[in-house]
Amino acid sequence: MAASMFRKGLCRARSLCMVQHELESAFTLQRQQCRLKNTATNMKPKASRKKIASKKKVDGEPVKKFTSLTPKYSIYITDEYPPQKFSFEKCIEMHKEAAAPEMTNTLHAQVYADIELDCTTNKKTKFMKNIRGLLEFPHKFEHKQKKDIFIFSENPTDWEQCKELGATTVGGDELIGYLNQGLLRPDDIEKCDFLFATPAMALKLLKMRSILMDKTPTLQNGCIVSDFEPIIKKHIEGVTFKSHKKENSVGLVQVPFGQLYQEANQLKENFDHMVSVLAALKPKNQAYLLKTIRLIAPPSTEIFELEFIKTEGVLTQEIEDSDEED
Questions:
Q1: pLDDT tens across 39-67, in order?
Q2: Strand pairing partners for 235?
Q3: pLDDT at residue 267 is higher than 70
Q4: Radius of gyration in angstroms for the set of CA atoms belonging to the chain, rounded to a whole number
Q5: CA spacing 20 to 30 A to 62: which of 148, 180, 196, 289?
Q6: Beta strands of 119-238 (E only): which ranges?
Q7: What distance in Å separates the CA atoms of residue 312 and residue 290, rounded to the nearest whole number?
Q8: 311/289 Cα distance (integer angstroms)
């Protein structure tokens, strides 16, 4: 009896040892598989390492490898080459060719400078605000911009005259009352392009600085006037521009500076005037403001990037493309 009980206990002990051994083996195997899996994940083949190395970032953007810097032929796959840059004259010539009567017949189209702005300053955490202004070009063209102009005057005859000239909102003390009551909101003031006032009304508007902000008429910004006719005509005929932010350090602005039917030299003079005005808006502590310039002429989808040298925000020299140099 004792022997049989001993055998049963021995068999039971052996079975428990086998189960424990199997559990330990499985646990060790699982740990080994995990270790090998992690090792395999961390160990990259040489080809993969090269691929990752080719994606190093410059200015926060991955560097793309191209077949060559310049294409050998006039017809090529654009993804295989960096954006090609041209002189101003070449850009205008190509836009005019695309808009010719035998092509799209759109010589009435406006030419725009699509500009990327460098909004950084000498402080890493501080960036330029959006820029805005008015351009009076030496060669006029039909820009078709609609202007939202506010006029504050105590004289009712000014209201009628300004309405005829193209002002959108005119009035006197009642307009100030609308501002106080919230009927004219800060959003309405922000959307307006220009706000002018007589000296007497400008004094009253000083109390509304918290609403008017940078639209408050002052002698410095030239918005305090007595004769509204010349100032309204000037702003109706001129071209307004306002940038917006792509990100904190980068701004975008599109400015029309002519129409394709105009002579190339007229477009160049308008373009140079536009660049000089924009360059003057750069902060003193900034090397340059204009980062890249592309010329577009909607409805055409063609985009031609301009080649230029940046010096104190001004285009100092255009570089002729290789075909012209040859």
A1: 333 344 444 444 433 444 545 555 667 77
A2: none
A3: yes
A4: 34
A5: 289
A6: 132-135, 149-152, 169-171, 194-197
A7: 9
A8: 10
